[in-house]
Fold:
Amino acid sequence: MRVLVVGGAGYIGSHICKALAERGDTPIVLDNLSRGHRHAVKWGPLIEQDVRNVSAVTQAMSDQHIDAVMHFAANIEVGEGQREPLAFWDNNVAGVIALLQAMERSDLRHLVFSSTCAVYGEPQTLPITEDEPRTPVNVYGQTKHVVELMLEDVSGIGTLNYAALRYFNAAGASPDGEIGEEHDPETHLVPNALKAAAGLGGPMHLFGDDYETPDGTCVRDYIHVTDLAQAHLKALDRLRDGAPSFACNLGTGSGISVKQILDAVESVTGRPVPHSISPRRAGDAAQLISDTRLARELLGFEPAFSDAQTIIKHAWAFHAPRWGVASL
Ligand code: UDP
Structure:
């Protein structure tokens, strides 16, 4: 299968490309390289293009004999979205409108869409099922929610079959150390904790230790990026087998606190994690934990690498040599 991976030079997209190639499919990356990395495109061609350019994307679909599409090209940093909402709506929403137009012109009907648990906002029930009301509390979550509504409408007229995969906290790096998380600036917990352990950039800010959680710090459901990639392949196969459109959480069902992540970083790296307690970060829910039943039922999803030790071990093996630090 020839799969157009829009945003395939980014963190999650590049892991999907690797997983597609490992099973014999060809990933064709379309990426404007505004955040992605040329060096992360290793398993097929790179078309350096903005997804909002409908005619160029349509042309690429025809030139590359594309069979199915996956979309990862989005702005993801919550704080940035609050500061620059228009840029988020433009890239995250207008980008998908353009992609759907190109798919329609190209008679392509299968789309795996990268969504997020941020569509739920502050959940009323834990673990979070797919029936939880979708009331996002930040611009990032709003844009993903609105795209899901659009996908529902387009799918309703019978021209599109999509899977909207609502990720919890993607983390880790490929087990062989080939690719990993390289955001700039980095805002995510695992790389920031590793950076502090490596002695780079000063102490990490721990955003809030007064939440109503067992140790006062936020609880999240961390999922290894390689497990996430496998779930995407299964979602794509399900659509190709003729299943109707669906939305599904991707998490492990286990909550891990920020403090527990720092403990795991200390244990994996053998180094302390210098940190200071800082005020809560705007928009952070106290706890986000996925109900995993639907992913198991629809995708047969069983995470293989998503325990904290393995996530951190793989992330450290990826970062340490790049930072010039001995990994053990
Ligand atoms: N966090 C933190 N310090 C950091 C980065 C994150 O304390 O430098 C906390 C953050 O407040 C949240 C958790 O770690 O409670 C996970 O944040 P991350 O940005 O990794 O993912 P998010 O939950 O925002 O998708």
Summary: Residues 78, 169, 187-189, 192, 204-207, 218, 220, 258, 281, 284 surround uridine-5'-diphosphate (CB under 6 Å). The chain is about 40% helix and 15% strand.
